[in-house]
Design a protein that fits this description.
heterodimer, A: extended, B: mainly alpha, 2 domains, 75% helix
């Protein structure tokens, strides 16, 4: 039973979502976003061709997660991406850190890119699933996708790999690469909206180091 | 099939989603932006949407919560359809009564966690269990906070309720 107090409490939250004009406009936005998702995805291979990637894998015992080796390729990053990775079952996979720089930009555009990256909440971002699937296929473990991304199946993607399998790419590294792709794609969308001339030229440099050491010591 | 499930969930949840943002932003354009951003984000990560309908609805609100948290004015894409939605909301929004304004102000004056809990339960229509899951707190904590928040509001709004 709702008393007068509860009734007043509830009614104070009324908003005009049932207004016919609002409903119509909202339906249009819902349909538009669904249509955008339905459209053939522009294969987001921008990162593959536009990010210069350097990568060092730190083996167990080689370094603690907080003691990375020297950053040779990106000594002055615009963004540092640190993440501990686990699979969907909670098994620790490793820790990675990426130094990311919009290195081909300068002046106002570089400032705009930095401002955008500053505003990103990296912890809330998820790896690009397609990129993760691509990474797994490239290392010959495509069927592991369900262990890294809840509910994902390799058959969801149209991914083929030619040439030798990639070596030394652990699953933490693959997830970090997927996250890096998410960030670059986001940056790319933002920058090309503001500066259309960047559409085919935006590039970035990223350097990643990973360790499979647990982030915190395991009790004996 | 995955896609019809996502479409059905989003068509169903969209009005509640808009209401969620309207109750947490002061500008209809911001609410419209946030709906558009949330829908786009849901599609982007739609493979993770739970299969069960109610769980999927709650998951969408989780995405909405993150979108709201990271919303930065001027950083979002405002296309024509979103602008139209913002305009429609502005046109449809009438004067807020003094009583409603008093209640809203009293809720806003609560500690942040209590205020959000009240909004989720009384405005967005979540159960206490769903609210607890959404906020990532135990259900027992949600229950005790809810009771405390209502107690504070009863005191703050005594004159409003009596009228």
């Amino acid at each position: 039973m709702v008393d007068l107090f509860e009734s007043k409490l509830n009614s104070a939250g009324r908003v005009p979502v049932d207004d016919p004009r609002v409903s119509d406009a909202l339906r249009s936005v819902v349909a538009d976003r669904a249509a955008a998702a339905r459209a053939p995805r522009r294969r987001r291979t921008i990162p593959a061709i536009s990010i210069g990637v350097a990568f060092a894998l730190l083996g167990a015992g080689a370094a603690a997660a907080s003691q990375w080796g020297p950053w040779t390729y990106v000594p002055e990053p615009d963004l540092v991406i640190s993440r501990d990775w686990s699979d969907v079952h909670g098994n620790f996979l490793g820790s990675c850190e990426t130094h990311f720089a919009a290195s081909t930009l300068s002046g106002e555009k570089r400032d705009a890119a930095r401002q955008y990256l500053d505003g990103l909440n990296v912890d809330s971002l998820e790896p690009d699933v397609e990129r993760v699937a691509g990474g797994l296929v490239a290392v010959g473990r495509g069927n592991d996708i369900g262990d890294l991304v809840q509910g994902a199946k390799l058959s969801d993607f149209d991914i083929h790999h030619t040439g030798a399998l990639w070596e030394d790419w652990g699953n933490a590294r693959i997830l970090q690469d997927g996250l890096q792709t998410t960030i670059f794609t986001s940056l790319s969308d933002e920058m090309t909206r503001a500066y259309p001339d960047l559409a085919d030229t935006l590039a970035a440099t990223a350097e990643t180091q990973c360790t499979t050491d647990p982030a915190t010591p395991v009790a004996p | 099939m995955r896609r019809p499930h996502v479409e059905t969930v989003l068509e169903d949840v969209a009005p509640a989603l808009l209401g969620y943002f309207l109750r947490r932003t002061s500008d209809p354009d911001d609410a419209a932006d946030l709906v558009g951003e949330t829908l786009a984000e849901v599609w982007r990560v739609s493979r993770r949407m739970p299969g069960e309908r109610e769980a999927a609805r709650m998951w969408v609100f989780g995405v909405a919560r993150n979108t709201l948290r990271h919303h930065m004015r001027g950083r979002v894409r405002r296309d024509a359809l979103v602008s139209t939605l913002g305009y429609a909301i502005a046109q449809a929004t009438g004067e807020v009564s003094d009583d409603d304004l008093d209640v809203r102000n009293a809720i806003a004056a609560l500690p942040v966690d209590l205020a959000e809990l009240i909004r989720l339960v009384h405005w967005d229509g979540f159960t206490l269990e769903q609210t607890a899951a959404h906020l990532g707190i135990p259900a027992s904590t949600a229950r005790s906070r809810h009771a405390r928040a209502k107690e504070l509001l009863r005191v703050a709004l005594a004159s409003v309720v009596e009228s």
